Structures are given as C-alpha cells and as structure tokens.
C-alpha cells in the first residue's frame, strides 16, 4: 500500500503545473477517491488540497527567485487566474509578496516533498472486529459543527448540554441494536477534513424503530463495519484511536473506508477523565 501511495505522490509531483485529479491519484494508489483523501490526511497530517497548494507555491517560489519568467507567467502555470490572486496566495504561505521576494531575495518557506515509509509501530495490538449490519436508522439530535482534531470540541459540548435529559432518555429507549445506547456520530464532513471544516454531529441511537416527530433521523444502508475498542484518558484515547485506525490499521489490512457515518460509543468514568470506547467505521474489502 505504501509503495502505491508513493507512486501517486510521484505522479502528483510531476503534475504540479497541471490540474490535479484526485481520481487519478486514487487509481494509481489502487483505492477509492474517498479512502485516498482520508488516508492521505491521516498520514500526512494535513488535507491533500492544502499539501498541493503548499507544494505549488514552494516550486513557484523557486521560479520567482530565478527571475527568468514574469510573475504572471508563473501565476498562470501554477493555476492562478491573475497575478493578484497569485500574490495573495504567495504572501499567505511565504509572508512576503512575490515581487518583493524577487527584489530582495527574502527568506521563504518551503513545503518538502512528501513520501511515506514504514516505521515500526503497533507494538500493542489493536482490538477490532468486522460486523455486517443490515440497514438501520440513526435517530436523535443533529448539529453542524467545526472539526477539532485534538482536545474538547466546544461546539459539541454546548450542543450536548442543550439537549434535555428527558429527550436523551427517550433516545435511549429507542436503542435496539449494536452499538447500544446513546452514540456520537460524525457524518457529511466538508472537504478534506481540515481543522475547522464542518461536519454533521449526531447525538442519538442506532435503531430500527419509528422516528419521533421532534427528532432527526438518518437512514444508513446495509454494509460492513470495522469496530475498534480502546480504553484510556478522555478525549485523547478516542481521538488517538481515530488516528491509529487510518495510519496503522488500514495500511495493514485488506479494507478501505467507504462513505457513511462514523460512530463512536463512549462510556465515561464517574469523574469524566477516563473512557471505554468503541469506534465503528464503514468499510469495504479492497478488490483483489
């Protein structure tokens, strides 16, 4: 898998001055476009679109300093419709405009070319199982919130606090299948999962029951789910499990993620500092 990812990265590098088709990168990596975006973000620590932008502006900076082309020609070659748009993007990454950089030889920032390699991790085993589920219904309350990769998410905390206890109890009564009880669900994430991008956050239950009139519902089709377990400090244990699933488990197993809600079932200790958690990720087998 890592070899194929590096082949996709080599293709990207050769085509920085052309429109990048993520579908083509996914084809080279022999995976789906959806999974390629997810895997790249987890391994690289930044969204694919942001990496491409930084690499283009790194390579463009070398052309700016060389002084052999006009700034407009460089801007157009790297996908900017005007010198002004290029100057704004250049300033945002390098802290100085391209004209000033060319005149003064200013120090600039660089995004190194990425490649992926195997490091020895996973000295502790990951507990997981594959579950085939019939279609089900997610029922509860939903809010559109910003994504936070580490630490508590204030928008989610405020949202949950605003749900009345009586409503939560009615949700719990609807739970009739795994994962049991009230769950936290992320769905419909915008873009490449950059910090601050938006997602639908659900506080609800997995059920086959009818939907109460005052609750939101999401119909989830049948499919396979990889279910992971962890215990540890909250919320870090849950967030690190999410990371480890994409950086360690997927590259080592014949599965890839597929579109669908990602479900977390978390049970906190009395003081709220420790958690036992399950993470349900929709998956499909990688074609042979």
Structure description:
With 288 residues, the chain is of the alpha+beta class. Helix content is 39%, strand content 25%. The chain has ten helices and nine strands. It has helices at 2-14, 22-28, 33-44, 48-66, 71-77, 83-94, 98-104, 154-161, 165-174, 236-252, and strands at residues 127-133, 136-146, 183-187, 198-207, 216-220, 223-233, 255-257, 262-268, 274-285. Strands 1, 2, 3, 4, 5, 6, 7, 8 and 9 form a nine-stranded antiparallel beta sheet that branches. Strand 8 (262-268) and strand 9 form a beta hairpin. Helix 2 (22-28) crosses helix 3 (33-44). The protein is elongated and about 70 Å long. The model has no long low-confidence stretch (mean pLDDT 88).
